[in-house]
Structure formats: C-alpha cells, structure tokens
Amino acid sequence: MTKLLPTKQKELSVPITQPLELTVQDLIQRQAKIESVVREVMRADIDYGTIPGTEKPVLFQTGAQVLAQTFQFSPRYEIHRYEFEGGHFEYEAICRLIHIPTDLVIAEGIGSATTLEPKYRYRRGDPESTGRPVPQQ
Description:
two-stranded antiparallel sheet
C-alpha cells in the first residue's frame, strides 16, 4: 500500500497578518455571510434540500460549490487504487480544500470504498443470500 506523506504547503511571499483565531464577532459575520448567500444566491432543491427519508435540509454539491466560491476555496483530489487477489479493489480518495489566494490547505477529508462492501460485493453473477429479508421500501 502507498504511504501518505504530510501535505507540504507553499511558502508565502506575503506574511499572514491575520490572527491565529477568529473573534466571536468574526464568527458572527461569517455566519451572516453564509446565511445571506443561502438566501440571495442559492436555490432550494438545487443547492440544498431535503433528501427523502430525512427531516432536515442538507447542502448539495452545487451549494458547496457556491460556498467554495464565496470563501475562495478550491478542492484538490488525490485518488489511490489498490488491487487485491480475487479481483477485489479498494479506492481511497483524499480531498484537500485549498484557499486560492494563499494556497494553504484549509481542510482535508479521506474516503474509501472496497469491492468487499456488501453494496458492491453481490453485484456480479447470481445474488447470494445474506439471510436477511429485503425491506419493503
């Protein structure tokens, strides 16, 4: 397997003059900006909405892209594919959220999937019984 190394950040030609933490007022202003963007820019059922079977609205990918533009963030992806015996695969995806003006990593997320997961495992050939009934929904 590939070993992941820490992300190297580019040296800035301009020193960062922002404090290391946000004040309560900064957070209030940032929240107000997000609420304004949701109200004035985003569209219900396109940028956010309620997924069937849930109660609260969620942010859709298009809404996340609007917020990324608002705060000048850009996602960068790194995908790893691992092959195993028996035709099984595992994928690992790393997404780093980069602040465009400074090229600093703001956040990082890792996701993975494997062909051994039940939702993928039984898609080839005849279905195998799991011993559990299929729900009516």
